[in-house]
Design a protein that fits this description.
By secondary structure, the protein is mainly alpha-helical. The protein has a single domain, classed as Up-down Bundle (Amino acid/polyamine transporter I), CATH 1.20.1740.10. The chain contains 21 helices and no strands. Helix 6 packs across helix 20 and helix 16 packs across helix 17. It is globular, with a radius of gyration of 22 Å.
Amino acid sequence: MAKDIADAPPPDRLKANAIGFVDALVIGLNSTSPAYSLAAVIGPIVALVGIYAPGVMIASFVPMLLIASAFYYLNKVDQDCGTTFSWVTRAMGPWAGWLGGWAIAMTGVLVVGSLADVAVSFALLAFGFDSAVENEFVRQSLAVLVILVMTAVCVIGTEMSAKVQNVLILLQVAFLLTFVVVALYRVYADTSSFDSVEPSISWLNPFGAGGATLTAALLLGVFMYWGWESAVNLTEEVEDSATAPGKAGLWSTVVLVVTYVSVGFAVVAYAGPVFLAENAGEEEFVFALLADEVMGGWDWVVLLAVSTSALASTQTTIIPASRTALSMARRQALPAHFAHIHPRFRTPDVSTWWVAGIAIGWYVVVNRISANALFDSLTALSLLIAFYYALTGLACAVYYRRHLTESVHYFVLIGLGPLVGAGLLAWLLVESVTDMADPENSYSGVSWFGLGPPLVIGIGIALVGVVIMVARRLVAPAFWSERPGVADPDLVHGKEA
């Protein structure tokens, strides 16, 4: 008994070695919701750049890979589930770190409800309950139920979460590959009912369309890759926590680019750019239309791919927000109860349920305004995503600044690469603000305070964050006494501290 007590984990720590590298990789992949992301943006991207959509997907991958490198090297010297919050605090101080953590937490709040909604909608379509999709009460009630169930899975344990995710990713990949094979076969067999186009290597040129349309398409592309860092938020629960979570994040981006480009080729080739451009406003339901055309009576295969994708991401998107809140609470940047760990399951139960509760509230309230308002809140995501990714890339170079001249390897992968990634994302952030300032570019098409609703939502979230941050500074000033530092040389070089 004494030995068991001695070996028990500290009450404020998550369960160590709960999952392995493959589990973390799968969770990273599912957090991006590949099938849903493709369904949501393939039409709008093609509307902007036509046949060069696969090339844009590759171009959007570049800043993601560079930021994934920053996550890998920062995790190597600080295995904290708060990731960006902890790293930026160590490198650039508590004010910047707090805002980075707030951005991560709010992305989960904004998107979880929409993901659950898509999971329910496509599942209903797959099983032939089309009329239920149009019934807002039924659809939204089921979406709330999905959030509650997925949240319970997160709380019950990381091992259970990993098992659920493994099943969902296998289904998702199998469904997508089936769609790609059948679509390309029908293109070359000339049996497509659309104006199909045979694929060409020239489609990989991201600059084929050029101009402002390329910038807008890249913004959509960045959204497609967002979420892979969930693997790194599990760093305290993954075996070989110093390297495995970072590698899982890196490999997630690589697997994603291969998947996206493959499906991009299949969709553009089968449907043709004209059809996709004309139906870009249908968002994810363009995939539903294509599923019926490509698969015939087997369209449920693609519909379930999107449903399982959104279902998986509903769960995994809660992970970064809840663990960031846990990390912030442990350092008194948030109230202490957010740091509570379930005594049996060793998961952050309080912060997890808080994230789910706020996400449900946001989903229900915004839906009462209009469905377009919900889409506008999702558009505001790109501001938060670009902000905390860019902040992480900058923090990597700053935290490792004394080691960048030790080798070409360090200079390129820890300094230059993350800085370039941060610069690209900062540019996209500025472009997003400019684009969202025009109300006509929003889904609602209305003006809020003379600006587009997505920009107002983004500014509102930032202002609320600043108010809470200042209030915490007055109530619990200990966290704000932390001073920026540099990476520990022993940890950088893989030695025992």
